[in-house]
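Researcher: Let's do a round of design. I'm pasting the structure tokens now; please hold your answer until I've finished.
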């Protein structure tokens, strides 16, 4: 069973104030959401500019191939791929002396 009660004038004023507060809070949430969206876009833009800076800095240094690059404390840190050309020979594990039981030698 459902029953309806009429609010008196004082209650109606309080309810109206609560509705206005809710509307204002929802407006603030909407504005903050727009600000967050803009902040994310700005962050993406700055990140792309940083990547472009790193690519340019590597290009100036004639680094064409790299696996990873970042900046830290005013330095450019680059991970280069392993060079495996015809002159690079694999290491082979051999038995060594009693003082150095395993040695790595190039074939």
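Researcher: That's everything. Go ahead.
Model: Designed sequence:
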């Amino acid at each position: 069973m459902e029953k309806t009660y009429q609010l008196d004038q004082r209650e109606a004023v309080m309810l109206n104030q609560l509705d206005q507060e809710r509307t204002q809070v929802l407006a603030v949430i909407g504005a903050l959401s727009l600000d967050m969206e803009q902040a994310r876009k700005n962050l993406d833009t700055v990140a792309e500019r940083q990547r472009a800076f790193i690519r340019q800095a590597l290009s100036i240094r004639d680094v064409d191939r790299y696996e990873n690059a970042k900046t830290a404390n005013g330095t450019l840190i680059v991970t280069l791929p392993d060079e495996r050309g015809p002159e690079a020979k694999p290491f082979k594990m051999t038995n060594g002396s009693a003082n150095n039981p395993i040695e790595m030698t190039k074939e």
